[in-house]
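Ops channel
N.P.: pipeline sanity check, posting one input/output pair.
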């Protein structure tokens, strides 16, 4: 008699994790962040809605995002932030993008600036051009140096915020895209 072939173990299909809309948004946004600026590799990270809304300024931010979501008929919990940064001997750069699907980038500006820089004086905001792009420059205070000065660049639904030394700023802003 011939022995029956040994039964092959059957593998159970792996359970697929369901990603939150914010996680999907963060992953897509991270794909737009430059991985290198001026020859320096950036350490990349993402923040989902639960991360963003759990910060110390969350009450004001929550209210602002709720108002925006209502105004643009979207869900506040879809907000995501992704970015990268690096510090070298003579340079530093931080590139951060924020997106709330359905909301134009310009509408996110006040919420995003207060999250990153804290309260700012509107008198310390000015228009400028960097790397051929029109940007809004926001200083945290009147004595702000490069580390307390943000360059905002809205592109479609993505609001980019860049902080860095002059050489890194040019390279980073020149590398940004909305797609």
């Amino acid at each position: 008699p011939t022995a029956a072939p040994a039964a092959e173990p059957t593998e159970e299909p792996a359970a697929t994790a369901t990603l939150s809309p914010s996680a999907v948004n963060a992953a897509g946004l991270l794909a737009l962040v430059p991985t290198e600026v001026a020859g320096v590799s950036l350490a990349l990270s993402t923040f989902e809605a639960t991360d963003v809304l759990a910060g110390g300024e969350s009450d004001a931010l929550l209210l602002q995002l709720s108002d925006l979501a209502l105004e643009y008929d979207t869900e506040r919990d879809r907000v995501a932030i992704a970015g990268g940064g690096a510090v070298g001997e003579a340079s530093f750069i931080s590139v951060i993008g924020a997106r709330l699907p359905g909301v134009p980038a310009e509408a996110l500006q006040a919420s995003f600036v207060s999250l990153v820089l804290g309260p700012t004086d509107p008198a310390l905001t000015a228009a400028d051009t960097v790397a051929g792009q029109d940007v809004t420059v926001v200083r945290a205070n009147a004595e702000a140096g490069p580390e307390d000065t943000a360059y905002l660049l809205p592109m479609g639904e993505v609001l980019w915020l860049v902080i860095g030394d002059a050489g890194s700023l040019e390279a980073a802003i020149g590398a940004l895209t909305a797609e």
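N.P.: looks fine end to end. The mean pLDDT is 81.
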